[in-house]
Design brief:
Blueprint: H1 2-34, H2 43-50, H3 69-79, H4 91-101, E1 108-109, H5 114-123, H6 130-146, H7 149-159, E2 161-163, E3 166-167, H8 169-177, H9 186-194, H10 211-224, H11 228-234, H12 247-254, E4 266-267
Antiparallel strand pairs: 1-4, 2-3
Helix pairs in contact: 1-6, 3-9, 3-10, 5-6, 5-7, 9-10, 10-12
């Protein structure tokens, strides 16, 4: 019995090792491709098209250099204020989330960084479970090792979901405002970043109906209201952002939706 148990344990460990090795190689190869070639599709896009029957619009990729600096700053401030400091995962945010969840009626799974959200969008399905969260963390750490921060942000802004069948900032700008990304006003940028946690249920025209979305909007408006001198001195390329929006409370409300929230916490 003892020998059989040891053999079984060895087999299980071998399977786990092979699985992680395969995943690591797969992510490495994909990141190698994505460092030079713009991705046209991700697992979330396929899921929305096949499972949810959304008419997914073709993604029009835009270089990070053509995305307004203010928009990048707003996204980092709202979604992941330590983006330029952490290694793909923010342990402090996860720890804080776990300590807070005990005070809520629902169960929540950790705070997702920009890199984790990207990993989920490109590689995983929007299922709410610990295994997916583990996979998300594993992939995010490897992506942070292999890709430059600006490349990760570029991939994020071009791949993230912004509505039913709408992916990427260029598609969002055209869908909601009928204009190019460079033509967006500060107000429009604030509105687009505000709806990121749940763009399936909310858009620029209806998010203010919810008090917690209004809090997020007000925070982003305050960030956007910084003087030009402060933008130039303190926030070059989105770095040095010290203010951050606490997405925990907004996720507490919007997670009741049947759709997958992009950032923050998952309820069960």
């Amino acid at each position: 019995m003892v020998r059989k148990g040891k053999r079984l344990l060895k087999k299980i460990l071998k399977i786990i090792y092979i699985f992680h090795l395969f995943l690591a190689v797969l992510v490495f190869l994909v990141c190698l491709v994505y460092s030079n070639v713009n991705p046209k599709v991700g697992t979330l896009m396929l899921y929305r098209e096949i499972k949810n029957r959304y008419k997914v619009q073709p993604v029009e990729y835009i270089s990070i250099n053509k995305i307004p600096r203010q928009l990048k700053i707003l996204v980092v401030a709202a979604e992941d204020s330590k983006f330029y400091e952490h290694w793909g995962v923010d342990p402090e945010a996860i720890s804080e989330a776990l300590s807070r969840k005990d005070n809520l009626k629902k169960k929540y799974y950790g705070a997702s960084t920009i890199t984790q959200q990207l990993a989920r969008t490109l590689f995983l399905l929007p299922d709410k479970n610990f295994f997916r969260k583990y996979m998300e963390i594993f992939i995010a750490v490897e992506m942070d090792i292999l890709l430059q921060k600006e490349k990760i942000l570029e991939l994020y802004l071009n791949s993230i979901e912004w509505g039913k069948g709408i992916f990427g900032i260029k598609g969002a700008a055209e869908y909601y405002y009928g204009k190019g990304v460079s033509e967006l006003s500060m107000e429009e940028m604030v509105e687009l970043v505000t709806i990121l946690p749940n763009p399936i249920k909310y858009g620029p025209g209806n998010f203010m109906k919810r008090k917690l979305f209004l809090r997020r909007y007000e925070f982003l408006a305050s960030v956007a209201g910084l003087t030009n001198q402060e933008w130039n001195d303190d926030n070059q390329n989105g770095e040095g952002i010290t203010n951050s929006y606490d997405s925990f409370y907004i996720e507490e409300e919007i997670s009741s939706s049947n759709e997958q929230n992009q950032a923050g916490f998952l309820s069960e």
